[in-house]
Amino acid sequence: IPQTQFSMLGNPSEKIGRLVFAREMDDSFYGLGDKGGSPDRTGRRVRMYNKDALGYDAENSDPLYKSIPFLLKVNRSKGTSIGLYFPDPCIRCFDICSESRFYFSAEIVDGPFSYALIMGDDYRQVLSGYCRLSGKPAFPPLYSFGYFGSSMNYAEAWDAQQRIERFFKDVEERDLPCEGLYVSSGYLKADDGKRYSFFWNRRKFPDPKAFLEDLRERGYHLTFNIKPGILKTHPWYSELVDKGYLLKDNDGNPIVEYFWGGDASFIDFNNPDAVKWWKGKLNEAYLDFGVEGVWNDNNECELADGELDAYKVRTLYPVRMAQVSYEACLEKNPNVRPWIYSRSGYAGMQRYARTWTGDNVSDFKTLKYNQYQGASMGLSGVPFVGHDLGGFFGPEPSAELLVRCCQSAIFQARFVIHSWREDDRPTEPWKFKDAYPLIKEALFDHYRHIPYIYNTARQALNGIPMERLLCLEYPSDARLCADIEQSMFGDSVMKAPVVNQGQGSKSVVFPEGDNWYCPMDGKIYKGGTTETFETPLGKTWYFYKAGSVVPRSLVVDKLRTGYFSKLQLFIVPSCGNVCYDYYEDDGFSVEGEHSHNIWHIEVSYDSSGKAGKVSISCRHLGDASSLVGRQFHVTFPDGFSEEVVIPAEKADGVEIPFGGEYR
Fold first, then answer.
1. pLDDT band at 611, cuts 50/70/90?
2. DSSP code of residue 394
3. What is the CATH code for 4-134?
4. With helix as H, strand as E and coil as C, how does 286-343 read?
5. Contact predicate 139/457, CB 8 Å
6. How far apart are CA 222 and CA 511, in angstroms?
7. Distance CA 418, CA 416 (A)
8. How far is CA 395 from CA 233, 370, 399, 420, 523, in A?
9. Order of strands, edge to edge, in the sheet holding 16-22?
10. Are 368 and 360 in contact (CB under 8 A)?
11. Is 3.20.20.80 the CATH number for 180-353?
12. In terms of Cα–Cα distance, which of 503, 556, 563, 560 is closest to 532?
């Protein structure tokens, strides 16, 4: 437990307090949101407010979009982990041993000058404890883990509807699995070039309801970009001022800040009447048309005047907006999981929204550091994170960059190619003819692993990250540093993506204590070793931990249901026994105490003696009809045993003997 000292800084009227904690030898620090650079924050001084950071430097820019005042302190040599959560919306900065290697500190404005100390046997227990305080993550619908198209260039154009329809036609002609589209704010762009929230441009979309119904009938899901800033030229601005629905300054007048397109004010999401109005407009403009997703963007609530009362709580703004969006979706469809995205955030955002790393740049440096940012968000209690593949901002990505981005997302919670190109040429999977087969293969590989990804997402509901740093998973292996270009995804998969330009080979460090199976070459690699692998553009590497069961889908298709027709249970044996809990559901229903849509499938492998045995048990909370017509494929690495196919409805209680010894 760190020793603490407290002092007041500067002018007493400013009420700035400083909490100082002693650092122990070998302490390392993680969390604080989507900060760039290494995930180990040691030696950094970081600012804690949210900023619209278009084109940020993923290694050095600070602040960025999310400021989460949770700090994870790990001492690998002592085997200890603690968390410090500072429940204050106005923290000026954290100094993580930048001023002195002997202590770290937090500077807090206006109080409360307090913190919660969270204990645990390891970092996972600490994170679970933090999420019990700040809120457990909301479970997104299954389809949100699949591939989505997106580009600002679609909705900005005057033929926006035709461009979107063309995108889906291209997807269908190429037989690509695709869940839908993220629609950028151009659909709100009026003839004067300004974006007016809730006002569809009817020249671009003459009949939004019919347009959306057609896409929904074809199985697509759309989410629409919405912004909380109401321009002073907005047709409803005067009405909102009169009703008091906008954030006010200390004199009771609407706060006016520069926003995209001109001066604007922000909806006050702490005003119940304003919340009711906002929810009504969400219904009228989207939810009544069958739209399932709300994409909260430009919601950093950047305020210039530090004397404003609202300034002190501005980091809470995106969380409150996400909560209102979440509630509106649940009120519209009480039995369907809301699909909410928020670019900005603070502690507790995970209760309502997923997120991504914002307006990233199309270069290899960003690809590399985005991986660390994703892991850092998981270590801040926000597990469902992804990136704009190919880069949102900057020059056209090269074929190499786009391929490597898509390969890095095989094991990620979000697979979205999103862009804004000044030449009006959106980034799409088929952008480069020669690279398209490689991108398609990465996309298909992502879909094959959706059962594993989705099961890992369910595990994350307890606060355990989906993307995990190897140095925290294997703290006794000194070769594993925080910024090694490898990571765990869930319990069973180690990924080693290529994140550097022109990289023709890659050294992979295999953590001590486990052996590793490579699905690409069929070989077993011993823990504690380092191997070099060739990495031509079409090649990426990942490994299954020995003693794992990796559920995979043998059918690559749109994610209509979580009951996969041909579910492969890929077993990688180890010297001991293997036991794996796999959960499946319909993919969209709200789950609660009395849910009736969940299957719990337990797979165990007993390796005692010279013959192994696989046992399967299936437990359902309700109707068992979801097993009918499906197959379970029990599979081992080549050379161990033949695959066994079992009708799913007959799988409960099955025992399958296997001969031979595992080497």
1. low
2. S
3. 2.60.40.1760
4. CHHHCCCEEEECCCCCCCCCCCCCHHHHHHHHHHHHHHHHHHHHHHHCCCECCEEEEC
5. yes
6. 41
7. 6
8. 33, 18, 12, 9, 40
9. 4-9, 16-22, 103-109, 91-96, 44-47
10. no
11. yes
12. 503
Nearest C-alpha neighbor of 591 from the set 139, 288, 173: 139
> Does the domain made of 551-658 have the CATH classification 2.60.40.1180?
yes
* Contact between 564 and 631 (Cβ < 8 Å): no
User: What local confidence, expressed as pLDDT, does residue 595 receive?
Assistant: 65
How far is the C-alpha of 49 from the C-alpha of 644, rounded, in Å? 55
Give 89's contacts (C-beta < 8 A, 6+ positions apart): 312, 313, 314, 315, 316, 346
Query: Any idea which residue has 């789950």 for tokens?
Result: 591
Instruction: Please state whether 127 falls in left (phi above 0), alpha (psi between -120 and 50) or beta.
Output: alpha
User: Which of 344, 376, 373 lies closest to 72, judged by CA?
Assistant: 376
The pLDDT tens digits of the residues spanning 324-341 come to: 999 999 999 999 999 999
Phi first, then psi, for residue 114 (nearest 5°) are -145, 170
Q: Write out the H or E segment, with its range, that includes residue 616.
A: strand 612-620
Q: Which residues of 548-570 are buried (b: 16+ CB within 10 A; e: fewer)?
A: bbbbbbeeeebbebbbbeebbbb
Alpha-carbon distance 204 to 188, whole Å?
9
Decide: helix, strand or coil at residue 160.
helix
Instruction: Report DSSP letters for 201-259, one per residue.
Output: -TTT-S-HHHHHHHHHHTT-EEEEEE-SEEETTSTTHHHHHHHT-B-B-TTSSBP-EEE
Task: Report d(CA 273, CA 277) in Å as an integer.
Answer: 6
Which run of H or E residues covers position 458? helix 450-459
Give the pLDDT confidence of 407-424 residue by residue, as tens digits.
999 999 999 999 999 999
Going along 48-129, which residue ranges are E strands? 70-75, 80-85, 91-96, 103-109, 116-120
Count Cβ atoms within 10 A of the Cβ of residue 452 and give its class: 0-12 exposed, 13-18 middle, 19 or more buried. Answer: buried
Give the mean pLDDT of the chain. Answer: 95
How far, in Å, CA of 518 to CA of 570, rounded?
12
Domains 4-134 and 180-353 agree in fold: no
The residue with tokens 């004010």 is 265
* Domain residue limits, the chain: 4-134, 180-353, 551-658
Exposure on the CB side of residue 222, measured as CA atoms within 13 A: 28
Q: Residue 578: in which H helix or E strand, if any?
A: strand 578-584
Exposed/middle/buried for 195, CB within 10 Å: 0-12, 13-18, 19+?
buried
- C-beta neighbour count of 625 within 10 angstroms: 10
**Whole-model pTM over 0.85:** yes
